[in-house]
Write a structure and sequence with these properties.
Strand content: 35-45%
Largest sheet: 6 strands, antiparallel
Structural class: alpha/beta
Order of helices and strands: HEHEHEEHEEHEEEEEEEEE
Oligomer: single chain
Radius of gyration: 21 Å
């Protein structure tokens, strides 16, 4: 699928353009899935790649590794990062790679497992890929819920009202943007801790075009910046101006749309908070003001 190709090629380029940092090294692939990142790392010259995955896909991955003649170079372990042990004779790894991101970067993500692996197994000065995931918010007129206003001649807006309680994962047309995307949080995969994954931060969105503010849109980039280690930088975006990925964009529909004009300024805070017993689910909380006026606070579930 094209949407999978964007992310897979991003990881391939980040690994193979920095092959000199993989050559002869031990690599850990957290949540290895089909094993494609493990194979990239092996092809880049890694001495040993250890892939870890808790799902049954590991059995397919093992056959893929064998079909590509990489047995002995790629070792796959079935289990969670929290419970598996590295193979005998391996206490540390030089590089960690993981495609850990979920919708809006953090929902259903494996980042806490990557952080655990980093703190437990990575050698001092070792590399983590991606190195960072900056998160962006955009003011938008996108409103797919408008369909329910007149559904085959019937007013079905109560369905739309209920849908506004949840964040929605959609492909948002670029022409719906009312502001440029603004960075509100940069996830540093090399240094952030689990506690940093719950946060509330300020933002400012300068309105660039007249329209009706119906939603906020969240997306993230994946950054592979190994320049500090003598390598190069590669990145890809999940924004609506970039080629589509399976992450699409995350839309936060407002209960009360507002007309905005070019030159206006939306200020506020955006927060991500893990909710309840399931620690991979999030509530997203946004408080916003248009030119200093009161617009209120809204919470969206990502459960």
């Amino acid at each position: 699928m094209l949407t999978d190709r964007v992310r897979t090629q991003g990881y391939r380029d980040a690994i193979e353009r920095n092959a000199h940092l993989f050559r002869g090294k031990v690599v850990l692939d957290v949540g290895c899935g089909t094993g494609i990142l493990s194979l990239f790392a092996s092809r880049a010259g890694a001495r040993l790649v250890i892939g870890v995955d808790a799902s049954d896909i590991i059995h397919h991955a093992r056959r893929i590794v064998e079909a590509n003649g990489c047995q002995g170079k790629v070792l796959l372990l079935n289990g969670t990062m929290e419970k598996v042990s590295l193979p005998e004779g391996v206490s540390k790894v030089d590089v960690i790679v993981s495609e850990w991101m979920g919708y809006a970067a953090l929902y259903e993500s494996m980042l806490p497992s990557v952080m655990l692996a980093r703190d437990r197994y990575l050698v001092p000065g070792g590399c983590v890929l991606p190195t960072a995931c900056p998160m962006f918010i955009t003011a938008s007129s996108h409103n797919s819920l408008g369909f329910w206003d007149d559904c085959y001649g019937f007013d079905m807006r109560p369905i739309a009202d209920a849908a506004r309680a949840d964040a929605s994962v959609e492909i948002v047309p670029e022409e719906c943007a009312l502001s440029p995307p603004v960075l509100f949080r940069n996830i540093d995969c090399t240094a952030d801790t689990d506690a940093d994954l719950d946060f509330s931060v300020p933002f400012e969105l300068p309105i660039a075009t007249d329209g009706v503010l119906t939603s906020f849109v969240v997306h993230f980039d994946a950054v592979f910046d190994l320049s500090v280690a003598g390598g190069t930088r590669v990145d890809f975006s999940t924004g609506f101006s970039a080629p589509s990925t399976h992450w699409k964009q995350t839309v936060l529909y407002l209960r009360s749309p507002n007309t905005v004009a070019s030159g206006s300024l939306i200020t506020g805070t955006v927060g991500f908070s893990r909710s309840g017993a399931y620690k991979r689910a999030y509530d997203v909380i946004v408080t916003h003001h248009i030119d200093g006026g009161e617009c209120g606070t809204q919470v969206w579930r990502m459960h």
